[in-house]
Amino acid sequence: MAFQAKKLINHPQDVVTEFIEGLVETYPGLQYLDGFPEVKVVLRSDVSSKTNDKVAVISGGGSGHEPAHAGFVGEGMLTAAICGDVFASPPVDAILAGIRAVTGPMGCLLIVKNYTGDRLNFGLASEQAKSEGYKVEMVIVGDDCALPPPRGIAGRRGLAGTILVHKVAGAAAASGLSLADVAAEAKHASEMVGTMGVALSVCTLPGQVASDRLGPGKMELGLGIHGEPGAAVTDVQPVDSVVSHVLNQILSPETNYLPIKRGSRVVLMINGMGATPVMELMIIAGKAVPKVQLEHGLAIDRVYTGSFMTSLDMAGFSVSVMKVDQAILQRLDAETKAPQWPVGVNGNHPPAKIPVPVPPSRSVMTDETLSRPQQLNQQGRILEAAIEAAASAIIDLKDNLNDWDSKSGDGDCGSTMCKGATAILEDLKKHYPLNDAAETVNEIGSSIRRVMGGTSGIIYDIFCKAAYSHLKANSESVIKPLSWADALESAIAAISKYGGASAGYRTMLDALIPAVSVLKERLTAGDDPVDCFVLSSEAASSGAEATKNMQAQAGRSSYVPGEILALVPDPGAMAAAAWYRAAALAVKDMK
């Protein structure tokens, strides 16, 4: 069903001029000519025809490819960019206005993508400027590798590789070279680059009806940058396969578009088409690099990843490969103030990955220290029983926890807690140094951190780490009951500090706070420690049940209406009460 695309615009006819206004407000190094709507020219604010003693480098074309071309105006790159309407070549008068505004005695170079309208309009403007006494040269860029040659008089389309040509030419001009030399470097760079694009969706022009030309589950190979059909439509493939196809096409010895052979040095540009997330672009880059190196035998000097030449809101990407030598690389690395040229790319890569640092506490411990003792002392046996009972209780409660959480959260509390409990049971038999209570608590946290995602995992990891820190500071070989209570209190305080919750917020703390309160009160009164533990577990259960009557003030449930929350207790509190109660009863059975 056809529908008008949703756009954050005022009127479709004003999108280009309003884009330019926003651009120059954002970047103080840019300004525009006061000739709207016919003349839409962005230029460097520090250059005029009267002051420019370098070759001016000018490019442009239809709008809709942002940040190209205006985003690449700046010292060391473009001197001016001529903006047409969306996907329409700029008029001759606008191009002439740009030439007149920034061209000094050194002349100007026009860099033009190979589309008929751009060639004609920039060509006519060039001839007119020459008749006015300006020195003008023009370089046409056709880097498309999607279609096999020959392409008749139309030739190969100009795509994202044009941006690399802009950079080479801009750096050459900034170095003070003559117009002939700048044009020669730009032409050489244009012959060294090849590009191919892939689309998952068709772009939508402002004010137009969204197209469903591709349909679900389809992708287009070898498209241009104006939404025109590509070389082929196929089923969506894994990115590995797509990247391989694109690289094989660009580097094909049959088409011989690029003078590249094994051992050549290249740079890559991974370009988003407008609606491709950075995550996906980085995945593409990560797959392209080893394929270029290992399958094609090329040495990669630089990788530029981002959105450089887009097609409005198209989901897709293009890959550009440019053969480089030290001279081209020097131009690419040269400093520029163009706001959209990527920074932090220059220079040789250090190793892509390095070892994960080992925590200081681990580095001084032997494997024997952090493994299950061959014989357990009394404290070790009690710990083992309590841990096993607590973890088993969580596993048994999994479905109930998920059910409660489905009414107050995202429905995975039981599954998440069960992962942690299962890991604890597995590690209990192999790794926990049960005769050392503090280290055992620390290892429980490590088990949780390894497998439990989301907020629950980090909260319980904090819980264990805080308890460990308190117990570790205790010099007792056998932890006394009041020290256990103090450790529990420290763990609760840490959760409250970092999570922001406290009593009455409808969280796990509503089970643990009553528990530690009763535990410390009864221990201080001199009651039997095991009885104190059991009594405190009853307080934990009561506290968890009481969360039915609380309005959530933390976590996802804080967004759920109170009448829905009143139907169920907080699953986090119920889980905490369950493992605490199970541990207490297990200790009682050991008495």
Automatic annotation (TrEMBL):
Region (Disordered): 340-365
Residues holding substrate: 62-65, 113, 118
UniProt domain DhaK: residue ranges: 11-341
Example GO molecular function: ATP binding
One GO biological process term: glycerol catabolic process
SMART domains the UniProt entry points to: Dak2
Residues in DhaL domain copies: 381-585
PROSITE patterns reported in the protein's UniProt record: DHAK, DHAL
NCBIfam families cross-referenced by the UniProt entry: dak_ATP, PRK14479.1
Protein name, UniProt field: 3,4-dihydroxy-2-butanone kinase
Lineage, opening ranks: Eukaryota, Viridiplantae, Streptophyta, Embryophyta, Tracheophyta
